[in-house]
Amino acid sequence: MKRIFVGAVLVLGLTLPADADVTLKQTTGGKGLGISGTASATTYIKGNRMRSDVVMGDKTQTTIFDVDAQKMYIFDSKKKEADVWDMATFGAELSKTVDMSGAKASVKPNGQTKQIAGRTAAGYDIEVSMQSAMGGSKDMTMTVTLSGPTWIVKNAPGSADYARFYKAAVTKGWIFSDPRGAKAQPGQAKAMAEMYREFAKLGGVPYESQIDIKPQGEGMLAGIMARMGGVSTTTTTESVDTASLVDELFQPPADYELKQRQ
């Protein structure tokens, strides 16, 4: 269930030049399905590449998203190896189990504001729902709904680059969670991706998000969903930096063994 938690992490003044890089430092928490506690995360964005470092106890899990190369790398600080996913192939397989035509997304301003990390954030209520076949089985169709308030700092540092990355990634069918977990919960993975795209449309950076993830099904599946319950996550941005980032940050260390996954 840590894969769900790490995937949720990836939820996230003056307009910047188009080539600015972005570093976001965040705190994330979650509960449900055996998830509890908080973790610190750092997200780096440079063009169509993103890196997420999530610290859990004495281990750091790193995920690198290279949209142009269609590669995702996942590794942790305890091993000298990295899993490599061909996202063009994986995305095509995942799309077979998710009904994108039935996807629904709603983002509405709620009229509230909040001070977060020294900036004024505007409140929005977001709801995204997605139908999918659980575990790839067409006989186990479920609907996943993500909903809750998010707080956006309009024209915050990094806004243009944040939006550009997520729009490019979701357009190519990307997800932002561990592909192994996404195979079992494709609707949730795709719903999260759509949520990030909706954030990108708002013209700012999400400084706080409180998202409830609820699965629903019919017949026998309804009982399974009831026992599983939902997941709630909270992500808060503590700082945003626009200093230049080196290319090496978006590659696995040179001495790591690369393992192809599918």
Commentary on this structure:
The chain has 262 residues and is α+β, with helices and mostly antiparallel strands. The protein has one domain (2-256). Helices cover 23% and strands 48% of the residues. The protein has a 12-stranded mixed beta sheet with strand order 7-8-9-10-11-1-2-3-4-5-6-12. Strand 1 (22-31) and strand 2 form a beta hairpin. Helix 3 runs antiparallel to helix 5 (186-201).
Low-confidence stretches: 1-18
Give the total of domains.
Answer: 1
Strand order of the largest sheet: 7-8-9-10-11-1-2-3-4-5-6-12
Helical proportion?
A: 10-25%
How would a textbook summarize the main sheet?
A: 12 strands, mixed
In DSSP terms (H or I, runs of 4 or more residues), the helix count works out at: 6
Strand content: over 45%
Write the element-wise H/E pattern from the N-terminal end onward: HEEEEEEHEEEHHHEHEE
Distance between the termini: 20 Å
Alpha-carbon Rg, integer: 18 Å
Helix/sheet category: alpha+beta
List keywords for this structure.
262 residues; alpha+beta; 12-stranded mixed beta sheet; 12 strands; globular
Secondary structure layout:
Elements: H1 2-9, E1 22-31, E2 38-46, E3 49-56, E4 59-66, E5 71-76, E6 81-86, H2 87-95, E7 98-116, E8 119-133, E9 141-154, H3 159-171, H4 179-184, H5 186-201, E10 204-217, H6 220-228, E11 231-241, E12 257-261
Parallel strand pairs: 6-12
Antiparallel strand pairs: 1-2, 1-11, 2-3, 3-4, 4-5, 5-6, 7-8, 8-9, 9-10, 10-11
Helix pairs in contact: 3-5
